[in-house]
What does this fold into?
Amino acid sequence: MAATVAFPGVNMFEAVSDDIDNINVIKGQEDIYEKSKFDQDKDTTTFRQFNDACDRVKSFYAQQHTLQTTAFNLKAREDFRSKTRAEMTVWEALEKLDTFVDECDPDTQESQLTHLLQTAEALRNDGKPRWMQLVGLIHDLGKLLFFYGAKGQWDVVGDTFPVGCAFDDRIVFGTDSFKDNEDYDHEVYKTKFGIYSPGIGLDNVMLSWGHDEYLYHVVKDQSTIPDEGLAMIRYHSFYPWHREGAYRDLMNEKDEAMLKAVLAFNPYDLYSKSDAPPSAQELKVSR
Ligand code: FE
Ligand code: FE
It folds into this structure.
């Protein structure tokens, strides 16, 4: 029977299996850090070229950086806890998402289903563990938010960053692009650590609200995906952190391990976008 995913709320897996499944879920973990092979012949400098990005991407970030405030974030989290938006199987979710085109992605205008299949297939071809292939397949399913009460694309997609503390200049388009954000001159939020403290751990930091944060909270409670996989989902768009080295002072020991996992996942998300589109029909039949 196909499992049903609640977005969010109702537990999709029978509770009785939870503890059992946790055992050995990390099996094969040693493979996850091995360098990706599928992209070795690609020119990876051609990806994420925001400076040449079209106006669509620029205006997306102008809006996202203005509207992602601490107050909005607290409200979005409250909404998450109080609402179940939909329930569906993973495959139904993939098909529903297929009609969505991400405005802020400079690298692809392929459908989301294609992107998720490309990511999962690249992981499979490199022999990564099955749970990591699953992470590849579902990591963007949080974009379904767009169909369930999002205010626009700015609260669904795009790079993420913490709210409640100073915006780091290593966020795409830099600190200046936050000038119209109401937190920009806030007495506490404009300070380096804001409402946080050094080494507090990213589990305690509010990241800007969007598909990563949303799906992370859904699967944290409704799957047996290990912490490394949850981190791949939660932080995959947190480029200022995992690529640019910002916000490292907020990390604790656990986050050091999570960073390694996120970096191991990143090439599959980013560089599989130029792979030939897999056939959804064939993969659906062979699953
Ligand atoms: Fe994403
Ligand atoms: Fe993605």
